[in-house]
Amino acid sequence: MATLLQIKGGFKRYGEQVLLDDADATIVDNVKLGLVGRNGAGKSTLLRIFMGEEELDSGEVIYSNNLRVGYLRQHDPFEPGESALDFLMRDSGQPDWKCGEVAGQFELKGAYLEGPVKELSGGWQTRVKLAALLLHEPNLLILDEPTNFLDVRTQILLEHFLRGFNASCLIVSHDRAFLEATCDQTLDLTRGKLTMYPGKIEAFLQYQEERREHDLRVNSAVLAKQKQLQTFIDKNRANASTASQARSKQKQLERLQTVEVEVDLPTVHIRAPIIDNPRQGPAVRCLDLSIGYPDHTVAAGIQLEIEHGERAGIVGDNGQGKTTLLRTLVKSLKPVEGMVKWGYGCEIGTYAQHVYTSLTPTWTVLEYLESKALTGTTHQQILAVAGSLLFRDSHTRKKISVLSGGERARLCMAGLLLGDYNILVLDEPGNHLDVETVDALANALLEYKGTVIFTSHDRHFMQRIATSVIEVRDQQVRNYGSGYESYLYAVNKEVDDGERELNAKRGKSGSPAGKAPKGDHRAARRDDRKLRKEISSIEKKIARLDDSKNALNRELLETTDAKKALDLHNEIQELTEQLAEAEARWIELQALLPESDFG
Question: CA-CA distance, 598 to 335, in Å (whole number)?
Fold first, then answer.
């Protein structure tokens, strides 16, 4: 195999932290490589060094003359008003037919290809960026957390693409299911050292654990032997008849060495609220429920029942209404019609996507936890919970304004643990949490005796936790009936067969949506023009709302005034609801376009 890229003796330091310490690794052609390591270990820094954006303090990176790198950009590379097709042609210099052919591999057709690219969701924009990468014909793809905020369907589409990509990949991801599906080798960055393992992530993690246990057993045996030899030496060194034996044993003792076993890095320990008397029967019922907003219904006719003790995973594509359903269940959003009825004695704790962006920035970690703790909770108990989520000593006095996104997410989780909730409603709890914290949360929820209702795009987390699956799709909410594995199988099959595109083209009658009856072509054209006009209007509205939301988010990150932060948060929430409504309407209108618009 030809070598594409090599790092030799790499050393990199930031302040007191050493990220790379005599690091060595070689990337060869036609290998899919998963780069793993804890948050802060230096993975993104290593990628920037490979890309030539940063330099090593010492050591070298050697590049093959044939190396062509494709890098999945996290920033927005699009120009105002340009379509996905315009961008692909501008970025690659390829003709429109070639760009359209490659874009089709990512289901980019019709309005998704020819409409304004900036008005597509994050998942669809990622598809456009991937098509752009492929058009440059790279032999090494570098992807940094490519599944962030992608729904399961788009994750699976990306997996299918990578498995069929006949070149090398270097992928950084916390998503173990994604790495397991796409990478056949693993590169670990721990304490500045790079370790290449010729196998998938799950096999590597098992090897790591087995190697550690083996080293501990070896050390135990060595220590026992050392003690035995030392006892013999102490007893016999002064005796003339046995002194030579003692000297021989001393040489044996000097040759015996223990294996260095690295001390575990600090780990998160999450303890879910303890339920003394788990309840039985229905926890919540939805009766003829319609969810959405005053001028737009997201889903209707919902008949749903969740039992006490269930861990109900809510699934569906982005924009289908998962968060709207959760907000309606916890009564932060009023039903359009029908009712949500909770059982007697339900104490509900919520963890929502927006919570950790709206904390009072002037509070300290300890002040926030004190505000969340039940009456009678001692100072020591609060410190214990803080410590379990890595807020120890001086960290408890940190202001919220200086915490990272991951630290804020952990802080909100700690606040939840200080309650006595028998119902937990969690909206994407894994966002901003590293893989160790997500695993700790999964372990806690498996031991929890209460009810969990949650959304997550993390398949490994969902597979471990969900005891039932509720799907939000096409303005309906239903209990999926089968387990999460069956749901994943169905999504995979749809991606394989292109069934979702076909379903989007068809109306309720099973005929292609938007096709006019024979003899009524003029009426069909009038309806078509009206439909396109409304789509154009919605697209402009989405752009305006998105710009306003981004501006408010920037202002929220900069302000230190608690009252202003709360006002900004409320404005952002209102804009988020309007955006969700507009995007849902846009999706609905796209499904009504004539079949020819989808190629």
Answer: 35
Distance CA 433, CA 437 (A): 6
Determine the Cα angle at 207 with ends 201 and 210, to 5°: 145
- Nearest-angstrom CA–CA distance, 541 and 119: 10
Q: How far is it, in rounded angstroms, from Cα 14 to Cα 6?
A: 22
Determine the Cα–Cα distance for residues 471 and 481; give it in Å rounded to an integer: 10
Residue 495, number of CB atoms within 10 A of its CB: 17
**Domains in the chain: boundaries:** 3-204, 282-491, 498-598
What is the predicted pLDDT for the residue at 480?
A: 84
Residues 342-356 have pLDDT tens digits of: 998 899 988 876 666
- Give the architecture (CATH level 2) of 3-204: 3-Layer(aba) Sandwich (3.40)
**H-state helical runs in 498-520:** 499-505
Q: Specify the residue for token string 């052609």.
A: 29
Is residue 446 helix, strand or coil?
A: helix
Name the residue with tokens 């914290």.
437
In 272-333, DSSP assigns E strands to 282-293, 296-307, 311-315
CA dihedral 428, 434, 439, 442 (to 10 degrees): -20
Distance CA 262, CA 485 (A): 37
How high is the pLDDT of residue 599? 35
Residue with the bigger pLDDT between 539 and 350: it is: 350
- Distance separating alpha carbons of residues 16 and 334, to the nearest angstrom: 52
Q: Cα dihedral angle (473, 475, 479, 482), rounded to 10 degrees?
A: -30
* 318 token code pair: 């982005």
Asked, colleague to colleague, whether 3-204 and 282-491 share their fold, the answer is yes
Residue owning tokens 């439909």: 531
Asked whether 208 and 235 are in contact (CB, 8 A), the reply is no
Nearest to 587 by CA among 121, 84, 116: 121
Q: How far apart are CA 89 and CA 291, in angstroms?
A: 41
pTM: 0.64
Rounded to an integer, what distance in angstroms lies between the CA atom of residue 262 and that of residue 271? Answer: 26
Q: 109: helix, coil or strand?
A: coil
Nearest by Cα to 202 from 169, 177, 173: 177
Q: Output the CA–CA distances (angstroms, integers) from residue 193 to 8, 51, 406, in the order listed.
A: 11, 19, 24
CATH superfamily, domain at 282-491:
P-loop containing nucleotide triphosphate hydrolases (3.40.50.300)
Cα separation of 155 and 159, whole Å? 6
pLDDT in tens, 228-257: 888 988 888 888 888 888 888 888 888 877
Q: What DSSP state is assigned to residue 145?
A: S
Containing 49, the helix (H) or strand (E) segment is helix 43-50
pLDDT tens, position by position, 357-388: 678 888 999 998 988 888 888 888 888 888 88
Residue 141: which H helix or E strand, with range?
strand 140-144
Q: How far apart are the first and last CA of the chain?
A: 41
